[in-house]
Amino acid sequence: MLRSALPVPKSYLRIRLLQQRERLSVDERKSRSLVAQRHLLLSDIFSAARTIALYRPIRGEVATAELFSAARLAGKTVCFPRLDGDHMVFVAIADEGSFVPGAFGVEEPWGTTIVTPDSIDLTVVPGVAFDRQGHRLGYGKGYYDRELSQRSRRGTLVGLCFDFQFVDRLPAESHDIPLDCLVTENGFFTPRVVSDAHGSP
């Protein structure tokens, strides 16, 4: 975890943390990703969710393949984001072969089953950095911020990242949507509180 008495500039954090994430070896990224996913898989949050929104990892993000497989085996609806102009929609898919190259190097679902955002029980959110207040730093495009702000029902919002992406404080804007909890390879974290990795935070 990166500690600082004051919020660190966003541009500095993006550069530093993206470089650190991309320096992970393939094996280390795979093992850390697996542990982080299993913390979420063992939680009441995951068990209770009927519709789950995941993401396709880019630039060394924590993988989501284990979450996808477990959710499908449990009969859950799983959806992934697809860009539609300046906005993001979620499309339900049934298998790992349902993706095509999309914008910014992100694979997108090619299906036609659009999931209503308000029906999503659990949204797993990627990012560059997250802090103890539940704030998130993305890549600067604002897609998740816009999509989440338009929901009348947000369900549970979970940030998934490596532990070194978890910082004390991020510069926050009034329109930022805080996440409910954060999951890393070291367990579950709620704003200002550390809780058991095997139960609801």
Tell me what you see in this structure.
The chain is built from five helices and 14 strands. It is α/β, with parallel strands linked by helices. It has a single domain, classed as 3-Layer(aba) Sandwich (Rossmann fold), CATH 3.40.50. Strands 6-3-2-1-7-10-12-13-14 form a nine-stranded mixed sheet, with helices on both faces. It has a three-stranded mixed sheet with strand order 9-8-11, covered by helices on one side. Strands 4-5 form a two-stranded antiparallel ribbon. A hairpin with a 2-residue loop joins strand 12 and strand 13.
The coarse silhouette is: globular
Whole-number tally of structural domains:
1
- Residue share in helices? 10-25%
Number of strands: 14
Task: Report the mean per-residue pLDDT as an integer.
Answer: 88
What is the radius of gyration computed over CA atoms, rounded to a whole number of angstroms?
16 Å
Please supply descriptive tags for the structure shown above.
single chain, 201 residues, alpha/beta, Rossmann fold, 14 strands, disordered C terminus
What's the short story on this structure?
The protein is built from five helices and 14 strands. It has helices spanning 10-22, 26-41, 44-48, 65-73, 143-149; strands at residues 51-53, 77-84, 87-92, 99-101, 107-109, 114-115, 122-125, 129-131, 136-137, 156-160, 166-167, 181-184, 187-190, 193-195.
Secondary-structure blueprint:
Blueprint lengths: L9 H13 L3 H16 L2 H5 L2 E3 L11 H9 L3 E8 L2 E6 L6 E3 L5 E3 L4 E2 L6 E4 L3 E3 L4 E2 L5 H7 L6 E5 L5 E2 L13 E4 L2 E4 L2 E3 L6
Parallel strand pairs: 1-2, 1-7, 7-10, 8-11, 10-12
Antiparallel strand pairs: 2-3, 3-6, 4-5, 8-9, 12-13, 13-14
